Amino acid sequence: MQTAIKRIIFFSAIIAFWEIGSRLEIWHPLIFPSLSSVFSALVEGFQDKTLIYDLIASFKRLAVGLAISLVIGTLIGILLGKSKTADETLGAVILALQSVPSIVWLPIAIMWFGLNEKAVIFVTILGGTFVMALNMRTGIKNVSPLYIKAAQTMGANGIDLFTRVIFPASIPYVVTGSRLAWAFAWRALMAGELLSTGPGLGYTLRYASDFGRMDIVIGVMIIIGAIGMIVDQFIFQRIEKSVIKKWGLES
């Protein structure tokens, strides 16, 4: 309750300062428009269904890209966690690629696929794959040897050992990896849509910027940030806390 009150006071102060500063023309409205004009632009965007089409298009790309990245990342992570040779070779490459910003892949994606849907989804996949792979690898590596030895003494080996002991013990890392993969994929998607032909939130952001519509630019930025916060706090954080509690990792 106290946290909610603090947040309300904090955001109310920001909103008040923003609106009052704009009305007093402390900054130029064309550079940083007032909150009321941003709100009007958002209402207009939803009324003419432009932002609705953008949201649908972005979420479709995200669903495809994130699903593929989670599958590929999990498989790579399992390989790295179970094979020392793969970890020492491919693992070093994955670690290096993880540090490369998603937007850097855009020129390659455009050359390979053209300026189309495939290029955007490709960048989105890369955004989530590497972080998922590294978390899956860490989860497998951190499984207690006592669990493995206890299972082996009871006859568990090979695939049976992995499915019954190793993978279930890695679930907290899988959840954390999924949460981070979502965040990285979401950012990669917005970067990819900046150069797309639309529709999409990133495309509208660039389009509005080209025509000097800063009210729409800031409005879309608020939508992007709000979606990220809502999905993270109300979906992934709750899943993560539930898993941590179930696995007895809560202090």
From TrEMBL:
Ranges where the ABC transmembrane type-1 domain occurs: 55-235
Membrane topology type: Multi-pass membrane protein
Residues annotated as transmembrane: 62-80, 92-113, 119-140, 161-185, 216-236
Name of the protein described by the UniProt record: ABC transporter permease
CDD domains: TM_PBP2 (cd06261)
Main location: membrane
InterPro entries: MetI-like, MetI-like_sf
Keywords, alphabetical: Cell membrane, Membrane, Transmembrane, Transmembrane helix, Transport
Transmembrane helix recorded as keyword: yes
Superkingdom per UniProt: Bacteria
Pfam families linked to this entry: BPD_transp_1 (PF00528)
